[in-house]
UniProtKB/TrEMBL annotation:
Residues 73-153 form the AMP-binding enzyme C-terminal domain. The lineage of its organism: Eukaryota, Metazoa, Chordata, Craniata, Vertebrata. This is ACS2L synthetase. GO terms for biological process: acetyl-CoA biosynthetic process. PANTHER family: ACETYL-COENZYME A SYNTHETASE. InterPro entries: AMP-bd_C, AMP-bd_C_sf, ANL_N_sf. GO terms for cellular component: mitochondrion. GO terms for molecular function: acetate-CoA ligase activity. Gene3D superfamilies: 3.30.300.30, N-terminal domain of ligase-like.
Length: 153
């Protein structure tokens, strides 16, 4: 049972070989972090049985009071709540902590039956505190009707 960066030791068909007009950036991004390996940019968890589980992008990291925390890690905990359909966590500049966290979530149903938004926000913060750590709880929680998407969804 180990977590770390997903790196690949051999080339494969269709692998990127450069970035157009910026080969130095390609080398720096993918080949210098772990010499001899291609760094994919993803985190991975390997079980004792040898199975791999991708844990998310390693560049989606928020540094809160010296603690490095992946946004996908927090989103995963929040998305397991019965009232949450999907969520997004972003960092923002914070005067004391360096970075703070804001959680936006889309409820399963408008009438989710969990009382006020404040009650549900407090419940989500407590869930994150128990499953990850106190410092991982977001500073702000907001309900939204739509989360921004990339072109690929």
């Amino acid at each position: 049972d180990v977590s770390g960066a997903l790196c690949i030791s051999q080339a494969w068909p269709g692998m990127a070989r450069t970035i157009y007009n910026d080969h130095k950036r390609f080398l720096k991004t993918y080949l210098t972090s772990y010499p001899g390996f291609f760094f994919t940019g993803d985190g991975v968890y390997r079980t004792s049985e040898g199975y791999y589980q991708l844990t998310g992008r390693l560049d989606d990291i928020i540094s809160i009071s010296g603690h490095r925390l992946g946004t996908a890690e927090v989103e995963n905990v929040v998305n397991h709540h019965v009232a949450v359909a999907e969520s997004a966590v972003i960092g923002y500049p914070h005067e004391i902590k360096g970075e703070g966290k804001m959680l936006s979530f889309l409820p399963q149903d408008i009438s989710w039956g969990y009382g006020t938004v404040e009650t549900l926000a407090a419940e989500l913060q407590e869930l994150i505190s128990k499953k990850i750590a106190k410092y991982a709880a977001p500073d702000y929680v907001q309900v939204t009707h739509r989360l921004p998407k990339t072109r690929s969804g």
